[in-house]
Amino acid sequence: MEEAQSRIQSDKPQLVLIGEKRICLVKRQNQFFAVQDRCTHNGESLSKGMVNYLGEVICPWHNYRFSLQNGRECSSRSADLITYPVKVESNGLFIGIF
Ligand code: FES
Q1: pLDDT, tens only, 65-84
Q2: Helix segments in the chain, DSSP class H
Q3: Are 33 and 68 in contact (CB under 8 A)?
Q4: 80 lines ligand 1 (CB under 6 A)
Q5: 29 beta partners
Q6: Which of 66, 97, 93 is nearest to 84 (CA)?
Q7: What confidence tens digit (pLDDT) does each residue in 19-76 have?
Q8: How many H helices and E strands in the chain?
Q9: Domains of the chain listed by start with CATH number
Q10: How far is it, in rounded angstroms, from Cα 36 to Cα 29?
Q11: 65 CB under 6 A from ligand 1?
């Protein structure tokens, strides 16, 4: 777990592949957030984007913004993202996929 804490930079989206799923993982203020990696606007990979001071991931293609907390697209122009629960345990970091 300490490895995940130290290897993942804050506010820098990381692509995580779990089976066929592509997940965008973000560490922010020592909390982890996981959302679908595929932008709901036109499919760009959100893990190539950045996170702003409000805790929104910004798509690098057309700059749509999505809340890391609830996946909501901030201007209601596109569908919301799927969010995944992240659990931090002493033996690792677990992402709840379904
Ligand atoms: S593809 Fe993400 S904003 Fe257009």
Answers
A1: 999 999 999 999 999 999 99
A2: 2-7
A3: yes
A4: no
A5: none
A6: 97
A7: 999 999 999 998 999 999 999 999 999 999 999 999 999 999 999 999 999 999 999 9
A8: 1, 9
A9: 2-95 (2.102.10.10)
A10: 20
A11: no
